[in-house]
Amino acid sequence: MVIFRFPLLLISFLVFGISCQQVDSAYTTEKSSKYKITKEDLVLGETVSFHSDVLDEERTLNIYLPADYGVDPLKKYNTIYLLDGSKDEDFIHIAGLAQFANFPWAQILEPTIIVGIANVDRKRDFTYPSKNEKDNTDLPTSGGSENFINFIEKELQPFISDNYPANNNRTIIGQSLGGLLSVEILYKRPSLFTNYIIVSPSLWWDDQSLLSSMVMSPLEAQKTVYLAVGKEGKEMESVAKQLNEKLKAINEDELRIHFDYLEDMNHGNILHLAVYRAFERFFSC
To answer: What are the residues facing 255 on neighbouring strands?
Structure first.
């Protein structure tokens, strides 16, 4: 059983387990005359909700705090923003990966805050308007990425800076439609993040218009991009390789790019390994 606590703001406990009943943080039960069982909460981090004026809805964040969080009140942490960051999506396994990567015998990742952005409507938030009729039929709520990027810039990042000891080293992780959004941010507002982990991006969207017509905004500081795709079909693999070629053409002083073709992975299982590879490639202590 895992319970998220909320030391900073509001909120209701999230309990992962087979029981839906609220429990005390530590309690003792007599299972039999032979065993005396003591149970305590397993705390991964906290869940925070706030109202977004930009999106006009409640948004939920799942936040992983590193083991040394709070020990040094002056310490500032790197931050990873995880798209598809709901507790039943990618938050728990990416938080576990960050914890492992921070072990002293691994030394892959510095202590890092993970901000999992829980979804409300990912098809709306991760896509820009498409002129392709099939896109609009298949994803009828699509087209809201500009609003979502505004939310990230004007509300989410300031919220994290105001409530957590976060420095300006920010990473975004996005897969599939989340990868599409990550590429759009890289092209349009690259200053929002320092590092981009882009996995299996859905650049087929709108007849590949982001690849074919988008010009990247000027880079004010060096960016790192880790890009990966698995054995995911001709179009998905092709657009990822095209993106790699476009990014490789940028001066390395402005952008460092590493591309992995993970041929043993598919669209459903690539993310965990790809993020681990990204940590190894660009974040090793």
So the answer is: 223
Residue 70 identity: G
* Rounded distance between C-alpha atoms, residue 194 and residue 170, angstroms: 5
Contact at 8 Å (CB) between 113 and 78? yes
Residue 66 has pLDDT above 60, yes or no: yes
- The rounded distance, in Å, linking the Cα atoms of 174 and 73 is 31
How far is 189 from 271, CA to CA, in rounded Å?
Answer: 24
CB 263 within 8 A of CB 230: yes
Question: Token pair of 174, please?
Answer: 């996005």
Parallel, antiparallel or unpaired: strands 26-30 and 36-40: antiparallel
The CA-based dihedral angle spanning residues 255, 235, 139, 47, taken in that order and rounded to the nearest 10 degrees: -50
225 vs 255: CA distance, rounded Å: 7
pLDDT digits (tens, 9 = 90+) for 164-199: 999 999 999 999 999 999 999 999 999 999 999 999
Q: Which structure tokens are listed for 201?
A: 């991006």
**d(C-alpha 162, C-alpha 259), whole Å:** 35
Would you state the pLDDT for residue 44? 84
Q: Decide: residue 263, CB within 10 A, 0-12 exposed, 13-18 middle, 19+ buried.
A: exposed
Helix (H, G, I), strand (E, B) or coil at 214: coil
CATH number, domain 44-283: 3.40.50.1820
Angle between helix axes 270-283 and 91-101 (nearest 10 degrees) is: 30
The ranges assigned to domains in the chain are 1-43, 44-283
- Residues 268, 193 contacting (CB under 8 angstroms): no
